[in-house]
Automatic annotation (TrEMBL):
Domain Rab-GAP TBC: 161-371
Pfam families, sorted: RabGAP-TBC
The UniProt record lists the keyword Coiled coil: yes
GO BP field: vesicle-mediated transport
Protein name: TBC1 domain family member 12
Keyword hit for Cytoplasm: no
Coiled coil feature spans: 88-123
PANTHER family: RAB GTPASE-ACTIVATING PROTEIN 1-LIKE, TBC1 DOMAIN FAMILY MEMBER 12 ISOFORM X1
An MF annotation (GO) of this entry: GTPase activator activity
Single GO cellular component term: vacuole
Organism: Phalacrocorax carbo
Keywords from the named record: Coiled coil
Amino acid sequence: RNFFTKRTKELKPAVQSAPGWKLFGKVPPRENFPKDSKIIQQEYEARTGRMYKPPPPSARRKNIEFEPLSTTALILEDRPANLPAKSVEEALRHRQEYDEMVAEAKKREIKEAHKRKKIMRERFKQEENIASAMVIWVNEILPNWEGMRATRRVRDLWWQGLPPSVRGKVWSLAVGNELNITPELYEIFLSRAKERWKSFSETSSENDIEDAGASVADREASLELIKLDISRTFPSLYIFQKGGPYHDLLHSVLGAYTCYRPDVGYVQGMSFIAAVLILNLEEADAFIAFANLLNKPCQLAFFRVDHSMMLKYFAAFEVFFEENLPKLFLHFKSYSLTPDIYLIDWIFTLYSKSLPLDLACRVWDVFCRDGEEFLFRTGLGILRLYEDILLQMDFIHIAQFLTKLPEDITSEKLFSCIAAIQMQNSNKKWAQVFASLMKDNKEGDKNHSPALKS
């Protein structure tokens, strides 16, 4: 408080007549009190010799039903008294322009209102459909699962998307539990993972952990690598980040799986699959579904990075790509753009990273019904949806576009494109095409084997 006391004492009170300062010269000082509006008006009248008269009430606008929230209406105002008045023609023209602007604003407002009503109607309709479907699933289908799951009625209902309240249960039943994992087994592997975490934190440095995680000999060491990916899992939701309600749960499921399958270990992309299951299932059930899902041939081939199997899947995909989208197929070929550039990320995360979460869950619904075929059918549906755009792009822009798909993609548009994809080539379905590729590969291996050559 005493920093500037000396300077303050030396200051003299300002004199009213002392000049103020302004850039490029002196100006009189500002008065310390604001003038009253009446005084300003009196000074103006004395200076101009004119008296301000407000316009009569009849001249003002009355009963305007729609008033745009802008300065649009100023066009109708009379000019200030010190300016020439409007001519009749100008006033009529301004009235016409104003009416046109109001009409356009009304049209926009009505259009927006209709759009909002349409969205609300669709939302209510969707909620009603979900509610009625939930009753059917709970009361009719789930109690008679084995007998009804393959019926046409259930398959059609399944295609429309599962109600969120039964989604986890249906996924668990559809994926199955061929590995016969129990909640008790999950607890065993979870405790093992916790022991490994503890030993890592006590004995290993961060660099040692990363080296161990990359080692094939001990994939369980990749436990620490899980931490790096959990924070990147659905970052916009904030529920899987450190301190979030599902952070520890996701860490536990992934850690337990890494100890359960040290031959597979942790691979990037697993965290998204586990996170989707955690959002729809209890902890132990999520682990059981996760382990069985990753044990499917397609997922096992990708997560174990079995290059020969992955190439077979890409080759089968290209057969149906050429069949359904020949122009886009040739366009990709001209740039040597192969499926691995965009398919790997889609398959690794089962589209949960590439699509909006609600849409990804609907893809999961039908994937659980149809198996691996639907994953590749969905990929073709995405390409069909954006075919016109992709045909105008070069290699770099195609790769960038397919790596980060538009966020405004809707389930109606995507599923209509998926429905238009025919998974049949020369009367062969996906499984038959894939089997023939596997057979050709085996025969090729035999023809090139040393035993046959000798």
